[in-house]
Design brief:
Elements: H1 3-8, H2 23-46, H3 70-74, E1 96-98, E2 110-111, H4 120-131, E3 136-143, E4 146-155, E5 158-167, E6 170-177, E7 181-182, E8 189-190, H5 194-207, H6 214-218
Antiparallel strand pairs: 1-6, 2-6, 3-4, 4-5, 5-6, 7-8
Helix pairs in contact: 4-5
Amino acid sequence: MSLAKILSSSPCPSILTSKNQTPTASFAFKGTLLSSLAPLAVAVALASPFPSQAIPFPNSQSSLLPPTTPFSQSQNLQLGLDNGKIRPCPSTNPGCVSTNPRSSSFASPWIIPETSAENAIQNLRDAIQKTQRNVEIKVDEKTPNGHYLQAEVDGGFGRDIMEFLVKRDFVAYRSMATKVTYVYPFTTALGDSKGQKERVNKIMEELGWYAPDFESMDS
């Protein structure tokens, strides 16, 4: 109900005009009453149950997500094959080597001699068990792109993951630390791929397999 209707329907006798009252006095009294009722009208409007226009809240869920940092990225390790291929090393993980050409820490794939091709997977498992500590085979399965083997072993600062893809006489692999260390306030991770290269070389030497020397081929 509007304020005008409230005033028009009010039975208050002091608002009515008598014969002895002048119009000026009546209007002055009404003005005083209006000014006294104004705060009440504001209070009613504020307490009204009808909806009012509010400041819109962002609908995008991305605005609620915490900012991405190199540390948070390093905690989300992607394992397994990517479109049938060994994945490259993550840019946030310096303790890694991979035969994927897109990796910053590239390692040469292995070639299996004909004499070892028949029992390649079993020989690889045995070599991992012999050269590494606390080995746990996580995945050992045949895929349309070759035989995939994933092993977890002890590393320098925790557990490391080794992945192999054996296809005929060719072996692609990735060896990676699962723990990445950062020193505050720097955002560059501490780590070195040298230890991972030494690890895979021990396995290769134990097997008697070899890696082609691409530098000598170019010369």
